[in-house]
Structures are given as C-alpha cells and as structure tokens.
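Morning F.,

Quick status update on the modeling queue. The single chain you submitted on Monday has been processed. Sequence for confirmation:
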Amino acid sequence: MKIICQVTLMLAIGLLAACQKTLPFAPEEEDLLDGPVNGLNLEEKAQFLRGDAAFNEVFTIERGLGPIFVANQCASCHPGDGKGSPFVSFIRFGQADTLGNLFLDQGGPQLQHKAIPGFEVEQFPAGAPSAILFAPAVTGLGFLDAVSDEDILQSADPNDQDGDGISGRPHWNQIPDYVDPRDHSLSINGRYITRFGKKAGAYDLLHQTSSAYNQDMGVTSSFESIDPYSGLKLDPEVNIQTINDVVFYLKTLKAPIARNQNDSEVIRGREIFGELGCIKCHLPQLKTGLSPIAAISDKTFYPYTDLLLHDMGPGLDDGYTEGFALSSEWRTPPLWGLGLSTDSQGGNYFLLHDGRARSIEEAIILHGGEAADSRGEFTRLSPSEKKQLIRFLEAL
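Structure tokens below.
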C-alpha cells in the first residue's frame, strides 16, 4: 500500500508539473489597463465591482436596448478598458461651428446605425457636418476628473502670449441640469470648463456616462430621459444606482503603469520628446485636488495631457465640432497606456480621433496647426532617434 501511495504521489506531482508548463503566464500588472486604483476601502471595492459588472452588462431588448443604437454594452467600445477599433467606431454629426447643432431634430448628435428587429436604422442627414470617432481608453479617468480648474488654466495660453506657437485653451461649455459642478469650479456666463471627450465637451464622468448610455445604447435614465428614436421622454431603463456605480468604476480604474523606465533607449526617447516641444501640450505631470475618494485625492500622476483644446490644423479639421470648440480644435489626448493600445485594437494601431493613423509615427506626421513645428523637428530626427522616441511613447 505504501509503495502504491508513493507512486500515486509521484504521478500527481508529475502531472502538476506538466500542467504548470502548459498553463499561460498571468500578465504583469503593468501590461493591463483594467484594475482598480490602489487604496480603496472595502465599501469602495464593492462598488468598483458592481460598476465593473454594469460596464460589461450586455443590454437586450428586454433591458431597454435601442430601438436604435451603436453598441449593446459599454465594454464593446472600450474592450479591456482600452481604445476602440474600426469595428466599434461611431459618427457624430450636426454642428459645424459654435452656433450649436442644427440637426438635433434629425437624429443628432450621434448616428445610431444599428436597430432591433422591426425598426429601421437611423439615416445620415444630407449635408450634415460629421466626424468619425474612436472611443478612448477609460483608465485613469478619475485622476483627470479630479484636476482643479485652476491647474488647467495654468497651462492655458489662448492668445499665445509667450510666442511659442502654442495657444491651448479650456473648453468653456454649457453643462446639463443634472450635473452638479465640482467644489470650487469656475464659471463664466454660465459655462464651465469641460474636459472629457475628443472635443472636451463633457464636464464630468456622470455627464459622459449618462450620455453614452443614451446615445450609444438607446438606454434612458433619470439623467438622460429622452429616447433617441422617438424624441419622447421615457421612464428610466437603467437606474440611478447603476449609473453611479459605473461612474465610480470609471473614477477608480487605475492609471496606466509606465514600463521599462530604466531602459536607456526609453530614457533618451523621453529627452527627445521634450526637445521636440511635445511636452508643451502633452504635459507629463498633473496633480489631483481634494477628492472624497482618498485613493485619488491629492495625488501626482503622469498622463501626458493638458486637458486643453488645441488647433491641429486643416489636416485634422473634419468640419464638425461640439459645444464651443472650433472644428479644427481637439483636446490633447492623454498618452499614458499608448503602447497597450493594440491589445484592444486587434493587434494594430488606430490612432488620432478617427483611427486614421496606423502607427505612432504616422500619428505624429499628421499633427498640424500648433504642433506643426514639433512635427517638423520630428521629421529631421535620425532613424535611431525616431526609434528611441517611439520606444519611449510605447513605454508610457
């Protein structure tokens, strides 16, 4: 019996060793975009998990999907909390200047190109200005949300008073009635500094999330109660607690973790990034103000954005805008997590607001307007210097 037990034990150990060799390695934390910020208490962790589940919920007809929509879950546009791809891009339309959207009565501001059975998809109105947009990664948004208006204004130079060719400005925009301004928020003539979205058109994550439920999935809430299809006010199809859970989830997703920071090529690439003047818009460092969420309160973080609008020139001017941004203006996108973009984009890069750039180098070359000088300096780099710069950007 003893011999049999020993043989059985040896076989079990051998089987376990064989399984360990075939099991995939768990990815490192720095190679994942999803996951909570460190420092949440038990109650906050529970709300994070509820928000995570709601973010990944698949909406059905019975749950209020549609009747016209773009996607049936939040995670469709942000797989793995990362960037969107050509399979889930969306079209905004209806506004060409700061006079407002002239096509709201024809389905604006977003084209719902899918429909549940028995309904027709929305048709694009002739003559409407439009832009194709790719969803951004959603990690680290709570840190961006907690930056004070004063800190955003410190980087603004709308009249280019320092003569460096960079004239970033905040988007002073109107906000919906259901949004409560942050403590110490600044306002001018009833407008507030908005910071989320390609044109920085959304004020906070409640504004962004409620609008996404409504415009992306055709799901009404107490915040956004107008059905995109009928134009009628409907009863909420998603409750306030679920919206708040998703907002909390987005606020407490960790910031992307930079990688290979001691690599000599990455270090040199960071220096080149500064020498080209890219840091004038892509600010390496920001800080949060006080927040009721201790884990993101009074923290320094490294997103590589100034949250301002910049004129990117005619090449990136689609003739469409939102709020009081010009059609050639885009909010500086955060660069953190850039090297992980391909994980959610099918193994390829689809960069800039509409995914037209298929590589980091192409995205740089397509910069114009205020970034024209930096682009010119980039074209004069040696091949090895370009490689070092790209290596740095992919390590963010």
